Amino acid sequence: MATDKITIRGAGIFGLSIAWVLTRRGARVQVIDPHGLAAGASGGIVGALAPHVPENWNPKKQFQLESLLMAEVFWQEVEAAGGQSPGYARTGRLQPIADEAALALARQRADTAKALWGDAATWNVRKVQDQRWSANSPTGFEIHDTLSARIHPRQACAALAAALAAKGVEVLADAPDTSITVHATGVAGLDTLNDTHSRLVGAGIKGQAALLEFSAPEAPQLFADTLHIIPHADGTTAIGSTTEREYDDPTSTDVQLDDIIARARAAVPTLRDAPVLARWAGLRPRSRSRAPMLGAWPDRPGHFIANGGFKIGFGMAPKVAHTMADLILDGRDTIPPGFEVAASF
After folding, report:
1. Any idea what DSSP says for residue 244?
2. Topology of 6-92+147-343 in CATH?
3. Residues in contact with 57: Cβ distance below 8 Å, sequence separation at least 6, in sequence order
4. 117 confidence band (pLDDT: 50, 70, 90)
5. Distance CA 282, CA 43 (A)
6. Are 95 and 224 in contact (CB under 8 A)?
7. pTM
8. Distance between alpha carbon 203 and the CA centroid of its chain, in Å?
9. What is the Cα–Cα distance from 286 to 203, expressed in whole angstroms?
10. Nearest CA-CA partner of 184 in 17, 4, 2
11. How is the chain split into domains, by residue range?
12. First CA to last CA across the chain, in angstroms?
């Protein structure tokens, strides 16, 4: 077990979650981020904790399933320690079904979900039940899964920081590395790796999202027209997001966001008159392998990498944190195939 202080570089969801689990397991930790709390992709507004489709199962989908099932206890403990809500709730998700072919596929996936998810969650195909909170469904049917959850990204990071502070761990602007250092630095970390490798290790993918003044805090999230529509506990509803590989300004919003707002309002008529409260844009770190990058940094003894959360970082965070703690504290490598740092190198 590590006895020296452990440095976590990066105060986003991966860095804070790893710091939290390490601290709970008795490690001495410092968190370093010159830009402050949740300054990058983790400062977003959407927060859809939604599962992969229950078919063509692989280690990535299994890891995400286990993480989503860990999330409720994980976030309860964070809130209890720091007194701040992360905005977490396992409220489920509704998806409209467009045509007969999609209806048949959805019913097939209900069977595979039962086999793969067991009794932990359900994937039901049903008639649309609530016209006030649903997306337009040409077939009149919708998918309802009970695995999906929501979280407010900024509030979740603030809740983790508060929980860490209650344990005596602050987020610092600068401090030197220690004998064990975890690099959870998002897009900036991927850029550093790209500079030292002959091929692309990862990149920042721009996303834009909007926050509407619409309160439905107990309602399930909706997935319609490729958009996530997330009712938050604070009485707002988030809509996201774009996926942009080419951009001029990573933090500016434009007509692409106008388009997804219009599409969301067309898909969910209840949102038609909801005012826009905020617009957000930022870069999300995606590794070359498209899975999170976890493990020891090759050729840098004592250094570890946790990066590449992309769109599923918040859903993966509980399991990522425990996996990294297993490796750092106990020398136990439970990183699944495809998640190893070498998979993206």
Report:
1. B
2. FAD/NAD(P)-binding domain (3.50.50)
3. 116
4. very high
5. 9
6. yes
7. 0.97
8. 17
9. 6
10. 17
11. 6-92+147-343
12. 28
